[in-house]
Design goal:
The chain is built from 4 helices and 4 strands, in the order ββαββααα. The termini are far apart. It is an alpha+beta fold. Strand 3 (38-43) and strand 4 (49-54) form a beta hairpin. It has a domain at 9-78: Alpha-Beta Plaits. It is elongated and about 65 Å long. The longest helix is centred in the C-terminal third of the chain and has 19 residues, at 96-114. Strands 1-2-4-3 form a 4-stranded antiparallel sheet, with helices on one face. Helix 1 crosses helix 2.
Length: 132
């Protein structure tokens, strides 16, 4: 597996076998995290990318490539192909938060309309005082 990007102490890989499989990603992170010289591992079930941060004095980039390849074989061999659908990360557009934001928008509009042009520079200060 060829690295997608390489920086000192940091390598990113990409594989399609992790897309949609959160459990595989978690297992890969666990397997890679136990390797000597590996500082941190982050695998994304959304993109299939694997980011490995490592100590260059303890392990080489080529060893990291081998470790990731072996870990992917191990993870795939376990047959953990369960697709995990995660809840949406966005908050619903209704509720208290959107009401507060709508109030801020109305207040900003009113301040821009009511203040004469030379006083527009005072708008941010006036808005912060009125919001309290």
């Amino acid at each position: 597996m060829a690295p997608l990007s390489v920086l000192p102490g940091r390598v990113r890989f990409e594989t399609k076998c992790l897309i949609g499989c959160r459990m595989k990603c978690l297992h890969l992170e666990e397997v890679m995290g136990s390797k000597q010289g590996v500082i941190a591992v982050s695998a994304s079930h959304r993109t299939g990318s694997v980011l490995v941060k490592y100590d260059e004095s303890l392990v080489s980039r080529s060893n990291i490539e081998v470790y990731v390849g072996e870990a992917l074989v191990t993870v795939s061999a376990e047959g953990n192909t369960e697709m995990v659908h995660l809840p949406a990360l966005r908050k619903p557009s209704f509720g208290r938060d959107s009401t507060i934001n709508a109030g801020h928008i109305v207040m900003e509009f009113a301040l821009h309309t009511l203040l004469p042009a030379p006083l527009d520079f005072l708008l941010p200060a006036a808005a912060s005082v009125l919001r309290r």
